[in-house]
């Protein structure tokens, strides 16, 4: 399966989610994690990981691919991996468009905040265009950095549900320090110590939703 972790807003959690899902998937299968963002967050994460933990994740390979050419390279490489996860930049870039034309699934992490939610209409338009060449592309949005209380989560979920071409999925990832703590060390929350059982359970919920039928 080719999965793009996408969206057109920086800071939504794309790189964090891509790395965490990739590590979790690589506990069972060969996984390719592609950094398609010129900010290179995932490349730095991967470099930190291999420096600090050279023995970790023999099933996880990370590479950089940008621009239109990323499309053909991913198609070729995908035959060697069970899954390819592509982390893209927080804009409507050539790389993101190229990746979306070959993806089975685009995951859209969305903090329940106005500036993130306001991008949904544009993402919906982008997906509309992409589906002219990739009509089977599935788009799932979920709350990342969800609030522990209040009504913002519910409001955001309603707006996602009302957005054409994008389906709301119910797994949520809370706003938890475990995610940045693990990420800055080149780890996933499933590997970091001390363990944060809530963060791990949330990641597992998202993971099962994305991969259980594949
Ligand atoms: N669930 C979360 N809980 C707490 N912090 C998070 C969470 N997801 C992402 N972050 C933090 O938010 C910031 C942006 O995340 P990042 O994955 O780099 O976003 P993007 O790739 O979409 O720009 C980072 O500092 C990251 O550690
Ligand atoms: Mg990023």
CATH topology name: Rossmann fold
Major sheet size, sense and barrel closure: 7 strands, parallel
Structural domain tally: 1
The total count of strands amounts to 7
SS element count, helices: 9
Measured by DSSP, the beta-strand proportion falls in: 15-25%
- The CATH class designation is Alpha Beta
Would you give an account of this structure?
By secondary structure, this protein is α/β, with parallel strands linked by helices. The chain has one domain: Rossmann fold. 42% of the residues lie in helices and 16% in strands. The protein has nine helices and seven strands. Helix 7 links the parallel strand 6 and strand 7. Helix 1 crosses helix 9. It is globular. 43% of the residues are buried. The structure holds adenosine-5'-diphosphate and magnesium ion. Adenosine-5'-diphosphate binds next to helix 1 and helix 8.
In short, what is this structure?
This protein has a 7-stranded parallel β-sheet, sandwiched between helices. The chain has 9 helices and 7 strands.
Which descriptors would you attach to this protein?
214 residues; alpha/beta; Rossmann fold; seven-stranded parallel β-sheet; 16% strand; binds adenosine-5'-diphosphate; binds magnesium ion
Walk me through the topology.
Elements (H helix, E strand, L loop, with lengths): L1 E4 L8 H12 L5 E6 L4 H12 L7 E5 L5 H9 L4 E6 L5 H9 L2 E6 L3 H4 L2 H11 L7 E6 L8 H10 L5 E2 L9 H7 L12 H15 L3
Parallel strand pairs: 1-4, 1-5, 2-3, 2-4, 5-6, 6-7
Helix pairs in contact: 1-9, 3-4
The structure holds adenosine-5'-diphosphate and magnesium ion (MG).
